[in-house]
Amino acid sequence: MFRLEKPAGQQKPGRSGGFPNMASVGDFNVLSSSIPATKVELSVSCRNLLDRDTFSKSDPICVLYTQAIGNKEWREFGRTEVIDNTLNPDFVRKFIMDYFFEERENLRFDFYDVDSKSPNLSKHDFLGQMFCTLGEIVGSQGSRLEKSIVGIPGKKCGTVIVTAEELGCCRDSVLMQFCANKLDKKDFFGKSDPFLVFHRSNEDGSFTICHKTEVVKNTLNPVWQAFKISVRALCNGDYDRTIKVEVYDWDRDGSHDFIGEFTTSYRELSRGQSQFNVYEVINPKKKGKKKKYVNSGTVTLLSFLIETEVSFLDYIKGGTQINFTVAIDFTASNGNPSQPTSLHYMNPYQLNAYGMALKAVGEIIQDYDSDKMFPALGFGARLPPDGRVSHEFALNGNPQNPYCHGIDGVMEAYYRSLKSVQLYGPTNFAPVINHVARYAASVKDGSQYFVLLIVTDGVISDMAQTKESIVNASKLPMSIIIVGVGPAEFDAMEELDGDVVRISSRGKFAERDIVQFVPFRDYIDRSGNHVLSMARLAKDVLAEIPEQFLSYMRVRGIKPLPAPPPYTPPIHVLQTQI
């Protein structure tokens, strides 16, 4: 799976985003440095497949492909088993995939009737295929997607049902506490100042740091505080993967002395406090030099408690809808739309920066909205027929019903209004934020969450009112994404993005951080690959949404609804003429 990172040197300060170099298991990519949000297991069933065998029914297999972001190349991800003699297979072998809300993962399911033992697919009969995104499966009701199989002209190829199930281990956290006995004395004037460093092993045998305890001063028998770590960070959900623990003596100058190390695994630790969880701390150098060396002390597990946390996917599966609204800056500083220098220039051959930002973010979010109807607003323009200035007008020209169908409908309305309104000013954000907040205020039960995307070229005119709107909106089920396009200085926007300093208005602080700002120029791919630029932008602006969503639900004590019961469609037996 391709992972796209923000270009080097542009990561925001104050963001904790996990430890560096935490790669996901699977198709490793050098650009990668984030842990997958979670893992999902895909189950595949088909109904009424084409029958390609003369004397019996087809022997189907399903082959899953994923698509690379840059060059759009399809790569085989895996295959199910072959099921003999059926047109209604329920495949047993599952596909386990990393899931990121902020990425668009294109999938292709190909079906074949297997005629021999050859692994070469061209030797078997093609039964059709189905295209979708991972978000489409997860975002469907009950995370269950049913779609027609296509690919053989003039034939009904049947249907495929794909169900996504979040793997339990991904949302477990563990609360652990350790103590040590008779550690080696490393300090000349006092005892040691010990601390522990935990590493999880990677596929290639290397180790990645995943936790450090605090330092306990001047003791050879320390008791460290209990700490909480996700199972994903500790062992990436693999219970038998090696966990290496190093013991150090802390030194002020940073040259910490190595006392020794031991290895364990999640499975061993999960036995809890017992004789199995007392570990000898071994210093390999000492062991090699001293014949009588026994150990450099012992470390004991005092407690081990598993906690399961509710996840973003639990809410989506329980039916929570993500409502997406866009607001576009129509101020005169964007330049005359008929000129190529304008940020709103309608180039017949490629999207402008506004179009790219809308498409990048919208194409991912639309998978989580069942009716795919999105309100699209504009601000900072003079409207026909009387030339009044509006900071909250419907792009489709219908203030009573500003909804557009899908992202393509939003793009169409955007291009249409460019031809009818006059770019003007000033740049006021508060009206569109308050517009979405009015809707969000009417559904606080967790059934809906609102995301507002504002695309703007710059300097904001109503800073005080916008801050007040954001502080008020932070109590509501909504998040705001601001994408800055063009060359302007965006210092004021950084202030709205509460990553470093929480935003406040009239002495009141925002209840949660709900704003994410990024300048689009940071994501422009130097080779001119717009697909890559859009993927990078979407990844960064959407990465915070699941956590902002969960923070609202936690503060309000809203639990996810149970998923609807799995629906098993009746198997239709095709009547064949004899």
From TrEMBL:
GO terms for biological process: cellular response to calcium ion. SUPFAM superfamilies: C2 domain (Calcium/lipid-binding domain, CaLB), vWA-like. PROSITE patterns: C2, VWFA. Pfam families: C2, Copine. Residues 1-20 are annotated as: Disordered. InterPro entries: C2_dom (IPR000008), C2_domain_sf (IPR035892), C2B_Copine (IPR037768), Copine (IPR045052), Copine_C (IPR010734), VWF_A (IPR002035), vWFA_dom_sf (IPR036465). It comes from the Eukaryota. Residues 16-147, 156-279 form the C2 domain. The keyword Transferase does not apply. Keywords: Calcium, Metal-binding, Phosphoprotein, Repeat. Residues 323-524 form the VWFA domain. CDD domains: C2A_Copine, C2B_Copine, vWA_copine_like. GO terms for cellular component: plasma membrane. One of its GO terms (molecular function) is calcium-dependent phospholipid binding. Probable calcium-dependent phospholipid-binding protein that may play a role in calcium-mediated intracellular processes. Belongs to the copine family. This is Copine-8. It comes from Corythaixoides concolor. The lineage of its organism: Eukaryota, Metazoa, Chordata, Craniata, Vertebrata.
